[in-house]
Please model this.
Amino acid sequence: MSVITVGNFDGVHIGHLRLINRVREIAKRRGEKSIAVTFSKNSKSVLSGGVIKTLINNETKERMLLDAGIDEVVFVDFEKFSELSGEEFLKYLKKELSLSVFVSGEDFRFGKNASCGVNFLKEKAVEMGFSVDIVFFAEKDKISSSSIRSLIERGKVEKASKLLGYRYFIEGNALGGKHLGRKLGFPTINIYPDANVVFPKYGVYASDIDVGGVRYTAVSNAGVRPTVEKTDKANIETYILNNSVSVSGGRVVVFFKKFIRPEKKFDSPEDLSSRIAIDCQIAEKIV
Model:
């Protein structure tokens, strides 16, 4: 038998964790499995017919939900499931995942055209033999992934981190570039993030970077490097302060601490180098 919650869980922020912790608590008490059912494609992207970039990709989402203590993460196709009636969806959870307790927020909607809510859920629970546990949020505690995405796109990474409950980060494989930073005296670690994940406002940030499980103080540029290269392909370039760390491939994680300044085109590489030195001095003072 399983205690289940359903949602996009984009970012696995502090609001999501209240639901997750409730699921874990009930599952532990009942000696049952805890399951988070989520969507392989963000439901808002499907419903809008457009592309809504997410805070994290599915691989990271699964890892974070498991790290939060969920026993199993089940990805379903939202396009398929959005065509099911509310009753059909609950029958799927009951038959395929052995639903015993459904945990949701008070605003949870499901079924075709989001036609079903908590009252319908409670009615069907009686008929189908499962329980419902509702988690209530005060207005001040309600957090949306879309509002966090907006903050990141505006460079407000400190506030985004508070709502996430952890330092906002981007991860990716360290790639060898043209060594443009090295020529300026600031060798960088370069990553090209998942194209489907939200990208921060172009600019320079105080940051930390995790390389091989070791975390270093750094300064990162998010953008297209207009002074030294003509490209429209944005990436994250990170320079580790006061450290010579050799990175040849592998996964790295950049944690964004504070926006320092917008990205700009300098008159010369020398002017850029001088400004990077100032950025480093600023970043060094930011905890």
